[in-house]
Design goal:
Helix content: 25-40%
Largest sheet: 4 strands, mixed
Number of helices: 2
Structural class: alpha+beta
CATH architecture: Orthogonal Bundle
Strand order of the largest sheet: 1-2-4-3
Shape: globular
Order of helices and strands: EEEEHH
CATH topology: Arc Repressor Mutant, subunit A
CATH class: Mainly Alpha
Distance between the termini: 14 Å
Radius of gyration: 13 Å
Strand content: 15-25%
Number of strands: 4
Length: 99
């Protein structure tokens, strides 16, 4: 599966941009800009890793729009363990789909 250049979610057009590492915070390979409707992915990552990062960022986005909070009052879209696992699962589904 190819990483899209854009997609629609909840009536918003989202752009996906592959960028140099200096456009991202230190150590990050992906980033969502919620108000600009953009997802940034680090250039140079392996194809499979970029797909997982794409879905990781999409999970941040979806969970934020859903507005789910955890029992401790934290925001679920900020829980990197949950978001990472969801992103990996979505990437696995896409990589293994068959007609």
């Amino acid at each position: 599966m190819q990483i899209p250049k854009s997609f629609q979610l909840l009536s918003h057009n989202w752009k996906v941009k592959i960028v140099e590492h200096d456009h991202l915070d230190s150590g990050n390979v992906g980033l969502v800009r919620y108000y600009d409707h953009e997802i940034f992915l680090k250039k140079g990552e392996k194809k499979g890793e970029n797909l997982e990062t794409f879905f990781h960022e999409v999970c941040h986005l979806m969970l934020r729009h859903i507005g789910v909070t955890k029992q401790d009052g934290g925001k679920l879209h900020q829980d990197e363990d949950v978001v990472d696992l969801m992103g990996e699962m979505l990437a696995q589904i896409c990589k293994t789909m068959k007609d």
